Known about the structure:
The complex is a heterodimer of chains A (213) and B (361). Chain A is α+β, with helices and mostly antiparallel strands and 213 residues long. Helices cover 23% and strands 33% of the residues of chain A. Chain A has 5 helices and 11 strands. Chain A has helices spanning 2-17, 53-60, 73-86, 189-195, 200-203; strands at residues 26-36, 42-51, 94-98, 101-102, 109-116, 119-127, 136-141, 148-152, 159-162, 169-173, 207-211. In chain A, the strands form 2 sheets. In chain A, strands 1, 2, 5, 6, 8 and 9 form a 6-stranded mixed beta sheet that branches. The longest helix of chain A is centred in the first third of the chain and has 16 residues, at 2-17. Chain A is globular and about 55 Å long. The two termini of chain B are 31 Å apart. In chain B, helix 3 packs antiparallel against helix 4 (101-116), helix 7 (171-216) runs antiparallel to helix 11 and helix 10 (286-322) packs antiparallel against helix 11. Chain B contains 11 helices and no strands.
Amino acid sequence: MKSVVRILVLMLAAGLASPALAHPHVWVTAKAEIVYAEDGRVTGVRHVWTFDPAYTAYVTQGLDKNGDGKLSPDELQELAKVNAESLVDFDYFTVLKVNGAKQAFEAPRDYGMTMEKDQVTLSLMLPIKGQAKGKTVSLEVYDPTFFVSFGLAEGEDAVQLAGAPKGCAATVSRPKGPDTAQQQKLSEAFFEALTAASNYGSNFANRAIVACP
Amino acid sequence: MSLTAEVFGAAPKAGRPRALLVRIAVAAVAVALVAAAIVAIAALFASAAPPPPPARNPFGMGMREAAPAASGIGAYILAIQGSFFRGLQAAVSALKESGAAFWSLMGLGFAYGVFHAAGPGHGKAVIAAYIVASERALLKGLLLSLAAALLQALVAVAIVGVAAVALRGTAATMTWMTGMVEVASFAAVAALGAVLTWRKAGKLLGVAGLASDAAHAPAAHGHDHGHGHGYGEACGACGHVHLPPPAEVDRMTRLRDMAGVVLAAGIRPCSGAILVLVFALSQGLFPAGVAAAFVMALGTALTTGAIAALAVFAKALALRFAGGRGTGETAIAGLELLAAAFVLVLGVSLLAGMWSGAGGS
Lengths: 213, 361
């Protein structure tokens, strides 16, 4: 009996201490361009990630060096560099498969950041390590820890192809995300918060599939 | 626990250095037991889960955040947290337009606090384990929860206030400070666990000694006092002979203990509070952000307090099962020691990055 109580208490304690749920704190609207070489090889992905206003406020805090109330790409370059370089720890939040084979990446190139209204946008080129050629390419952008919620941008141009062989076409699967939450009336926020939850798991699936003839 | 008690009960009367070694051994056994139990539980439940990310998120606030399970109830809580957090940000934006949004901000902040703490977190674990490890009543548990939650808000306000407002620093400064505070909070958990484990190892030896003595000479040392330290010349087995602390010192110790618990459970701020504060600051609404952070803390305190109450109840239940003196008391002392050892193991493993974080409280 005593040992049962002991085990129960221990299990309760262990349950309490197990890793917490890191809910989304940062929202990213993602665009991507899958880049091909002339011979039809996939060479990499060009990411364009636009951050939500709150994270923008956090990450740009104190960066307006000349105090003109605007953030120039120059003022943001150091931040872009730090971001681009630290992405390696999370595999660039990118899963790119060519004919089903997962690709590794080299360090990002041509990174930069711009500020528009109250949102920063990070762009970078993510080159594939080695050679990759295939008829089907799939691209997923997500954070496995869900701290960052990635959502592919609205519209046709969310995933584009650059220099792809003739006849290749990209199809984007874009489940309903919580991005609409920001436009809603505040009075609806409570209700929305409790009901938007039901199909949440699938909200994280952002996938583009490229099929070539 | 009876194992330890028997082992000890069979041991010959020990001298002072020997007693020290025995106490260390008992503490070590408790830590090993807890560590083994946790590893076993983790293996049982987490075998399918991917290992936690080794690094801090590139877009994070300087703290390690663990990967949640994105299915079932976990995903539901996750979604509610995310939505409330989004609503909170929208309320800050709306406040810029109209003061009427202030109450939305407060309401959403409170709700966010309640749900944010609904996930597991080391703060709740520390408070719950401390309650199991000590003679603490319901009110104390609730006060500890409230104080820890308020401290958490205070730390977030302090980090943003110092780094962003006073120093005009960058996100890198805040991230660095938050990372430092996180390490400090894990160290505080480990230190608290070490102190509690040491004390409870002593108590267990004392109680076990009393129990075995009582069998031989029931009248020798019948008095029972709050700490349960066995002391006195007849108590050879307990090894450490010390005077009972005066009430004054006792109260100081308790206050110090509770301050330690609040510190260990509360100094790690939550990323959400920091984000909201900086966002409010960028909108010229820093005071509203501070208000939101403290309202969040009240919500967090509600959830943590409920768990503290659960721990108080569990302890009371265990006490009832164990019954009165003798073996029962030894078992309770053992339980307390395990709870204390749990805090130590938790702190050390958080420090080692084995459990990459704890968002809740």
